[in-house]
Amino acid sequence: MVLSSVNKMKVFQLVFSDPGRSFYSSGDKLSGSVQLEAAHTCRVTGLSVTAAGCAHVDHRGGKNRRSRSQEVEYLKYEEELRLEEQLSRDSDGCFLLQPGKTYSFQFGFELPAPGRLVSSYKGKFGYVRYYTRAVLDRPTQHALQCEREFEVEEPLDINKPDLLAPAAAAKQKKVTCLFIPDGQVSISAKIERKGFCEGEEININAKFENTCSRIVVPKAAIIAKHTYLADGRSKVLRQKLSAVRGNHIISGMCDMWQGKSIRVPKLKPSLLGCDIIKVDYALMIYLHIPGSEKLMLELPLVIGTIPFSGVGSRTSSMSSQAGSLGSQAGSLSSWSSFPSAPPSYSNIHRDLRVDGPRTPLLQDYDGGEDEEDDDGGLFMRAPELHYPPPPAYSEVDQDGVNPPQVVQVF
């Protein structure tokens, strides 16, 4: 802030130690300096720095449209800077600022512990604002002031168990035409978790059924809901941020969304800790019904600042389930890789056995389980069957008369 020479101050401004920093959080140290430069010799009596933060709501409501306002304080700090370290005094005890020289007076303070601050916010009917203010007191003149705002963003981790839990809902509606029943429509939907960050994809699994005579259209949108409280009255504003749509569903048909995605746009995190201002998000899934009100259901969303780490109870349980399924699949594949044992010939009924003279000389070869044998499966393999002994045709020992000829089978 630069002042004109009428106020006898050429420079009067607040400078933060880290000007490139975009926001602060609970427990952070905020430091800086107050810079002074006088156009002419100037007498001052004191210099103080204050820091403040509050939530403020102002809206009109009720039949009389009466203005309602309320304020809650979250930060208050004050420090008196020591001018005697750099400035000399005159006979009246006032400090003298010499022209052509820039003076810098340091200040610093620590923001409150976690849980006592809320993130900065600016909306239609309220705000959460943080600022530092320097006050320069002068004798016989009004004090001079300069301000500088700073942003506060409280961390919001979406890896908490309650935000990693899935959200699901179902809803149905009966459709009428001139008070005559015209079937019904229904929605059932589920998302894998409630917590998301900017830029992440929300995968939607949903089922839409249409038994009315009209063509309906499924849609989904991310909704922001701003709630302002003042004097016991609330005012709510809803805002659609991004949307997707599906295919038309004709009468008597249904449609399935399996992982249909919608991206979280650039937006402020959920504002949950403020007493008079609240910002909630939701995924609204609905059916557009011509000539009738929409069928809508909402799944809660929390927009955080610390993104999903990919490690959670649900994820690990899913991994264990996938592992068990994989082991089952592996066991099944291992079982299928081994050929089943051939049936026992002793279990085959006698009348199904092949008589010796009609046994084929060559076994059919189809490249199956015998292809690894050295014989190649080309020679006859007569099963070793235990038939009852043949009847005696003669009392003469034929083996003694004509010794049997031994034929070796390869």
TrEMBL record:
Keyword Phosphoprotein found: yes
InterPro entries cross-referenced by the UniProt entry: Arrestin-like_C, Arrestin-like_N, Arrestin_C-like, Arrestin_domain-protein, Ig_E-set
Keywords: Cell cycle, Cytoplasm, Disulfide bond, Isopeptide bond, Phosphoprotein, Transcription, Transcription regulation, Ubl conjugation
Arrestin C-terminal-like domain mapped to chain residues: 181-308
Record localization: Cytoplasm
A single cellular component GO annotation: cytoplasm
Domain of life: Eukaryota
BP-aspect Gene Ontology terms: nervous system development; protein transport
Acidic residues bias: start-end ranges: 366-376
Pfam families for the chain: Arrestin_C, Arrestin_N
Disordered: region residues: 347-410
GO MF: ubiquitin protein ligase binding
Role description: May act as an oxidative stress mediator by inhibiting thioredoxin activity or by limiting its bioavailability. Interacts with COPS5 and restores COPS5-induced suppression of CDKN1B stability, blocking the COPS5-mediated translocation of CDKN1B from the nucleus to the cytoplasm. Functions as a transcriptional repressor, possibly by acting as a bridge molecule between transcription factors and corepressor complexes, and over-expression will induce G0/G1 cell cycle arrest. Required for the maturation of natural killer cells. Acts as a suppressor of tumor cell growth.
PANTHER family: ARRESTIN DOMAIN CONTAINING PROTEIN, THIOREDOXIN-INTERACTING PROTEIN
Description of how the protein assembles with itself and partners: Homodimer; disulfide-linked. Interacts with TXN/thioredoxin through its redox-active site. Interacts with transcriptional repressors ZBTB16, ZBTB32 and HDAC1. Interacts with DDIT4.
Family to which this protein belongs: Belongs to the arrestin family.
Protein name: Thioredoxin-interacting protein
Source species: Seriola lalandi dorsalis
